[in-house]
Specification:
This protein is mainly alpha-helical. The protein folds into two domains: 444 residues, no CATH class; 54 residues, no CATH class. The protein is built from 20 helices and no strands. Helix 7 packs antiparallel against helix 8, helix 13 packs across helix 15 and helix 17 packs antiparallel against helix 18. The protein starts with a helix and ends with a helix.
Length: 537
């Protein structure tokens, strides 16, 4: 009997999630993010048209500033996911309450800090932006309102984090979709009535707070024993949070330096229009990355579960299998950006000049797409195991290099130079992270390449050859979708042929579902003895 089975038999841990449960959580998380991505996709040209290039550029700059404010998370969320997954698996509710309450009150203190610096920072950043605007919009109240909303949402962010740790991704996705519907309706209503930055900030603030409150309701329903009282504050828990979150915070700083420096440098050294151009190209790549990273977030609590019960073989299998799965998904996206990027941008943005400026940036930044998604799986391994010290410091080094080289290259080569400054260090960092994850899961690099990467790369040659022969493509949705389908359909069929496990898993779930339907639809049958038993009594 294995150690996980012994612990479950003794009642010392919850049932560890199966591969199908992890896949289902990843799917629901991915579908919710896909809806958000599609919304962002269609809203970007709509907001660009309604706000105008100048105000949209200001929105991109303020959005990048707000991304830096998420550093006030201090890595607490990543720490809470790990310990909630661990102690929920071990059925230790008191320890779970200690970590949850400690995180909640730490967030409350940080919210006060955010409020204290919001007003002076808003005036300092907004004043030069207002001078560059060609409209009468006020940037200061727009930015201040978003910062106040962020401060109010900090302590409330404990609840979506708890849902991640409990692996209740279906409920979290449902709440996110409900809030997304309200957000879209509000944005369209405001933009049609009176387009402006302040109205946009009001809609975003109200819907974000409503989303957190709904997740609070779900958490209290699913975990009735949860308590966030300050009586649960514990020095040992605070020390553990500080130790883990310190490295996670460094990694977050690094992520902001490498991911958000582009629009800021472009807006500062060039113009708000240059910031908007870079942000649109970067957003196209980030859509592809985040679409799959949203699915890999479900791996961190699953890794923590397996680490809690010393399931080393499960760690290895999960790492290799998840890498192979995300590569099957990201490779056609990467190829699609290269082959269809220009006509896609032209049809999406409606401007030939803007599409021609964005396409070279998108191709350069796409160098990080496939490696970045594979690295996201490796990073979740390190987060789940709590091995973040070297990872976070190298990530910070990458961010500093991006910031320094970006400052130089944007002045020498414009936006393409800035894109190269972002892509180069990220490729090197991704390779190191994958190597580190192989070491911690006892996976040989040759085995990782053979079992995790080889088949997806070989199968991806099918859409590559098909799309190569069919390009160039007209900038029309019908032509783009038809050409993409001609490559994706044989690609998907070949994946099912190559991956026996995927095919067997799908067939097994379909067969079980049909059996349950047949059992429910058939009338219950009673034996004669049972039918006459009440009469005997």
């Amino acid at each position: 009997m294995t150690l996980p089975q012994q612990l479950q038999q003794q009642g010392r841990c919850q049932v560890v999630r199966s591969d199908w449960s992890i896949a289902w959580g990843a799917l629901t998380n991915w579908l919710a993010f896909l809806a958000t991505l599609l919304t962002s996709f269609f809203l970007a040209p709509y907001l660009l048209e309604r706000l105008g290039p100048s105000r949209y550029g200001v929105w991109c700059i303020v959005e990048a500033v707000l991304a830096y404010f998420t550093l006030f998370d201090l890595g607490i969320a990543a720490c809470l996911v790990r310990y909630v997954a661990r102690y929920h698996t071990l059925a230790d509710l008191p320890l779970l309450n200690r970590y949850a309450a400690s995180a909640f009150w730490l967030y409350s203190l940080l919210a006060l800090v955010v409020l204290a610096i919001s007003i002076p920072l808003s005036y300092k950043v907004a004043t030069p932006l207002e001078q560059r605007l060609d409209t009468t919009d006020r940037v200061t109240p727009f930015m201040l309102l978003l910062l106040i909303q962020f401060a109010a949402g900090l302590p409330l962010s404990v609840f979506p984090t708890l849902l991640d740790g409990l692996q209740l991704f279906g409920w979290k996705s449902l709440v996110r979709l409900f809030a997304l519907a309200g957000r879209i309706s509000g944005i369209v209503l405001v933009m049609e009535m009176q387009p402006g930055l302040l109205g946009l900030a009001l809609v975003l603030s109200i819907t974000q707070l409503a989303e957190h409150l709904l997740m609070f309701v779900v958490v209290r329903w699913q975990l009735p024993g949860l308590s966030l009282s300050w009586h649960w504050l514990d020095r040992a828990a605070l020390r553990e949070i500080r130790h883990y979150s310190r490295d996670a915070f460094v990694a977050m700083v690094a992520g902001r330096l490498s991911g958000q420096s582009g629009p800021l440098l472009a807006g500062w050294l060039l113009s708000p229009m240059a910031a908007a151009t870079y942000a649109l190209a970067s957003r196209l790549i980030d859509m592809g990355k985040n679409l799959l990273r949203s699915a890999t977030t479900t791996l961190a609590p699953a890794i923590s579960q397996r680490e809690a019960i010393a399931d080393h073989h499960g760690l290895h299998q999960l790492f290799v299998g998840a890498t192979r799965t995300v590569l099957y998904l990201v490779l056609p996206i990467h190829l699609g950006i290269v082959f269809f990027g220009r006509p896609f941008l032209l049809r999406w943005l409606g401007s030939d000049e803007l599409a021609c400026q964005c396409y070279p940036l998108a191709v350069i930044l796409s160098l990080t797409l496939t490696l970045g998604v594979a690295q996201s799986v490796a990073a979740r391994i390190l987060y789940g195991l709590g091995q973040l010290r070297t990872f976070s410091r190298l990530a910070l080094l990458e961010g500093v290099v991006v910031l320094g080289t970006g400052y130089v290259l944007v002045q020498l080569g414009g936006l393409p130079g800035l894109a190269l400054a972002v892509a180069g260090p990220n490729v090197l960092f991704c390779l190191w992270t994958i190597t580190a994850a192989c070491r911690w899961t006892h996976t040989r690099l040759a085995d990782y390449g053979r079992r995790g990467c080889l088949r997806p790369l070989l199968v991806a040659t099918v859409p590559l050859l098909i799309w190569w022969s069919l390009t160039p493509v007209l900038p029309q949705w019908t032509s783009l979708l038809l050409t993409a389908a001609l490559g994706l359909i044989p690609y998907a069929a070949l994946v099912l042929v190559v991956e026996d496990a995927i095919r067997q898993l799908v067939c097994d779930r379909v067969r079980r579902g049909l059996q349950r339907l047949l059992v429910k639809s058939s009338p219950p049958q009673q034996s004669p003895g049972l039918a006459t038993e009440p009469l005997r009594r």
